[in-house]
Specification:
Elements: H1 3-17, H2 21-26, H3 30-33, E1 35-38, E2 41-44, H4 52-64, H5 67-76, H6 106-128, E3 142-146, H7 153-161, E4 171-175, H8 180-189, E5 195-200, H9 207-223, H10 228-232, E6 235-239, H11 242-248, E7 255-257, H12 274-280, H13 282-301, H14 308-323, E8 327-332, H15 340-352, E9 370-373, H16 384-389, E10 396-403, H17 409-428, H18 432-438, H19 444-453, E11 462-469, H20 472-493, H21 504-517, H22 528-539
Parallel strand pairs: 3-4, 3-5, 5-6, 6-7, 8-9, 8-10, 10-11
Antiparallel strand pairs: 1-2, 2-11
Helix pairs in contact: 1-4, 1-14, 4-14, 7-12, 12-13, 13-20, 14-20, 15-20, 18-19
The structure holds 6-O-phosphono-beta-D-fructofuranose.
6-O-phosphono-beta-D-fructofuranose is lined by residues 148-151, 201-203, 206, 209, 264-265, 350, 500, 503.
């Protein structure tokens, strides 16, 4: 953003600082004006510390950024990932379910269609215990998704969130980390001969995935008394590096492609979502794509004042750049959405955690806040104390589901009541006088001291997102909503949402440190603190 735009935001913020959310919420018609719907999703922004004039300022900044041209360029497949000279065509992955004309290049769309068909055939083969032309092992009861980052978080969230849509053919497990504890656990508890291992890695160079893949391949081999061919029939790869997967020993028939034009954290809609399709079946996976396509269509057509991803982006920019909080908390009121904060951490922080523009200059404003969170109501009994009374204000995104997928109405009403209560408490707070009126015991000084501690400042912003029900469609829409929010923020902040150079340095250092740790290389090239810790580890081995 430009200095002049930031100055306008600062002026609006100065006006808003003098207002309390109690007063803003009391304005006639505000709740209706600040609530919008797209398909199965409703968003209520009325508890953001923003007024119509500030929203107009943000809208004017968005319009000046030509966010809509940038959006169309992304859908068309222009090079929007400049540092890697690639398009970002995750929207093409679900374009088959869109009602609008497909903007993605024809060849890209055709390749995606073919891959979806192969995915469907593979799911069918596993579910019906047939070969399906994949030369697959039969009798699969368990699937292990070996992949990390985007090759784990989206698929894991979707499998967990859509447990009630699972066909029941297979149990799904996730193995992202290089930490051998989980790997060992899985090898101890699963029957190798009934397990399908999915090696999911866009690059097929990721240390964690390749190491776990090798360990599991040995485990499969042992189960077949060293018959490598039999063991390999339990392996399927998903990768943009088909050659790499082949070099690992997985024949082309069992490699499903993904592509350079899809970023890892945007890839759950591709064959990276194979574990999701194995869990819920291909028709439900298509419904998941349909939900995302519905949000794509909305994003492409709604004016900014009604455009959910744009409004979510703008209120995020408002909080970060006008009011200042450095973190944002996500609290899903649904146990099956427990992985949502982790998914959004990668989506938002890996996409927007940058300070340099594609032109190599420093951005003018702060970028992504720290994203964190946990499910409600658990979180209420852990960190909500700080959200209500801590010295820092943390904007909260509350996600609820109207219709549960169980018959325990009392539980669900209690859950939703808690969500609504927290949003209200954060916004309204409790004044000193209200707290004093409730404090009856003790001397006057004691009463006043206690009342001060029982005062809630309120004025703490939140956005509430309600899904009609947790279905493949609504989950697809929810994730696409956040993808597009991130895109709009990237346009406003002037950063590339589709690269992630910041993860490289640590990977390089780990490669240099490992041989020192194992005693195969000397430590002289490492810094003093690292050397000392390696010494401490080695002395206890
Ligand atoms: O290290 C970060 C990252 O590159 C993510 O962007 C990506 O989702 C993850 O690693 C896994 O990468 P891959 O799918 O290539 O194994």
């Amino acid at each position: 953003m430009l200095e002049a735009q930031l100055a306008r935001l600062a002026a609006d913020a100065a006006r808003l600082r003098a207002k309390h959310l109690r007063d803003l919420i009391a304005e006639p018609g505000r709740a209706a004006r600040y609530t919008h719907r797209a398909g199965p999703l409703l968003i209520d922004f009325s508890r953001q510390r923003i007024d119509d004039a500030a929203l107009e300022t943000l809208g004017a900044i968005a319009e000046a950024s030509r966010w809509d041209d940038a959006r169309d360029a992304m859908f068309r497949g222009d090079i929007v990932n400049a540092s890697e000279k690639r398009p970002a065509l995750h929207t093409a992955l679900r374009a088959s379910e869109s009602r609008l004309p497909i903007l993605a290049p024809r060849n890209v769309f055709a390749e995606i269609g073919t891959t979806l068909e192969r995915m469907g055939a593979l799911v069918e083969a596993v579910h019906t215990s047939t070969d399906g032309g994949f030369d697959l092992a039969r009798g699969i009861t368990d699937v292990v998704n070996v992949g990390i980052g985007g090759s784990d978080l989206g698929p894991r969230l979707a499998v967990e969130a859509l447990r009630h849509s699972a066909t029941g053919h297979v149990r799904c497990h996730f193995l992202p980390n290089v930490d051998g504890h989980r790997t060992a656990d899985l090898m101890r508890t699963l029957d190798a001969k009934k397990t399908l291992v999915l090696l999911v890695s866009k690059s097929f160079t990721t240390q964690e995935t390749l190491l776990n893949g090798s360990v599991l391949r040995k485990w499969l081999g042992n189960a077949y008394g060293g018959d490598r061919a039999a063991a390999d029939r339990h392996l399927v790869a998903v990768s943009a590096n088909v050659e790499g997967a082949r070099a690992f020993g997985i024949p082309a028939a069992r490699v499903l492609p993904m592509w350079d034009f899809v970023g890892g954290r945007y890839s759950v809609w591709s064959a990276v979502g194979l574990v999701v399709a194995l869990s819920i079946g291909m028709p439900a996976f298509r419904a998941f794509l349909r939900g995302a396509a519905l949000m794509d269509d909305h994003f492409r057509t709604a004016p900014w004042r009604e455009n959910l991803p744009v409004l979510l982006a703008l209120t995020g920019v408002w909080n970060r750049n006008a009011l200042g909080p450095a973190s944002e908390c996500v609290v899903p009121y649904h146990d099956y959405l427990a992985e949502l904060p982790s998914f959004l951490q990668q989506l938002e922080m890996e996409s927007l955690g940058k300070q340099i523009t594609p032109e190599g200059t420093r951005v003018a404003q702060r970028t992504v806040p720290v994203i964190w969170g946990n499910v409600g109501t658990n979180a209420q009994h852990a960190f909500f104390q700080a959200l209500h009374q801590g010295t820092d204000v943390v904007p909260v995104e509350l996600v609820g589901v109207v219709e549960p997928s169980h018959a325990l109405g009392e539980n669900h009403d209690a859950l939703l009541a808690n969500l609504l209560a927290q949003a209200a408490a954060l916004a309204l707070g409790k004044t000193f006088d209200e707290a004093l009126a409730e404090t009856t015991r003790g001397t006057d000084a004691e009463r006043r001291a206690l009342a001060a501690q029982r005062t809630f400042p309120g004025n703490r912003p939140s956005t509430t997102i309600l899904l009609d029900a947790l279905t493949p469609e609504s989950l697809g829409a929810l994730l696409a909503l956040h993808e597009h929010k991130v895109f709009v923020q990237a346009v406003l902040w002037g950063v590339n949402a589709f690269d992630q150079w910041g993860v490289e340095l640590g990977k390089t250092l780990a490669k240099a440190i490992e041989p020192v740790l194992t005693g195969e290389a000397d430590a002289t090239r490492l810094d003093a603190s690292t050397r000392a810790l390696i010494e401490a580890i080695r002395s206890r081995r």
